[in-house]
Amino acid sequence: xxxxxxxxxxxxxxxxxxxxxxxxxxxxxxxxxxxxxxxxxxxxxxxxxxxxxxxxxxxxxxxxxxxxxxxxxxxxxxxxxxxxxxxxxxxxxxx
Length: 95
Hints:
The protein is mainly alpha-helical. The chain has helices spanning 18-26, 30-43, 45-65, 69-94. α1 packs across α2 (30-43). It is elongated and about 60 Å long.
């Protein structure tokens, strides 16, 4: 059975999950975005922090407005698999 992971902001391996969320949404490694933010942080710290928090608001609003369809599909597939396993167990007991 699939173990559930905590939401992005509550995971131990990131700060707010913004780079991870953007990377997941657009299909690239979030490390590249983290490197870009870190490099730009040296030259314009206030602008980078503002851009990061603004991007966080965009991600939060987009996740609220349009939930992740892949997550819903995976949950539906897991529920279907559990139902198949349950019916197979009942068939084995009946035999």
